[in-house]
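Hey, I'm writing a tutorial for new members on how sequence and structure tokens pair up, and I'd like a real worked example in the thread rather than a made-up one. If someone can provide the structure for the chain below, I'll link this post from the tutorial.
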Amino acid sequence: MCGIVGLFIKDKALEPKLGEMLSQMLEVMTDRGPDSAGFAVYGASEPGRVKLTLRASEGYDFAGLKDKLGGSSTLIERETHAVLSVPEAEVDAVKTRIAEVAPEVTVVGSGARMELYKEVGLPRDVAGRFKLSEMSGSHGIGHTRMATESAVTTNGAHPFSTGDDQCLVHNGSLSNHRGVRRELERQGVSLKTDNDSEVAAGYLTWRMNEGRSLGEALEDSLGDLDGFYTFVVGTESGFGVLRDPIACKPAVMAETDQYVAFGSEYRALAGLPGIENARVWEPEPAKAYFWDRKAA
């Protein structure tokens, strides 16, 4: 059992409140996942630059790593994570250099707008460590994990990111993830953990790299991914939700003129502004829901 939340802002005036709202939603889901938590926020971008979210052990010298990398990168440190902004043309070289000089550092996400944070601990503590409530942006997703089939580690925490500005949170279990993993590896998709949720993220990355939209990739997964699942997915401009054909995992959504929100339970949405006037519904099984800022 895990808790997942998502928030897509439609009214730009509400974007400064994204982190505060998402933090409250995440904390409410604590009893569904007290082992670890994580979130991804889509904030402002800088033309021609890419954000690399790095993760290391407590007290790691990120400033020293920046000095080793050289170049024109900028760094923002947040506890065990840091966001390194680099010129787009230098991304591959910087990733290679990090692997060479700091193999103990993991690149957990990259993209023009996405920052991704996850850690072991109660959701309230994880959100507080990384100052989620102070973040602004257009959309974000979050996850609270109760480990049932694997150890409680940061590597097992969500979200998982397998492509630029792409990430996924998942409540459920995939039964055919090993076969899908082998196919993704043949297609050149890089996976870093044994977690079935990362396989789901990798599958969507593969389909979108093939030219499919987020909505189309979610629809494709219905024929290729077996198991019980609810996915909430973020891309640079979009936000999507999918439940498996049986829909045994709980899910509820709400929409107003200002936002679209998702929660594993309604109580995750109960504190949102204007929720009393929102259209509230349970997502249908095997139906992909998606919203895109570019279409707004």
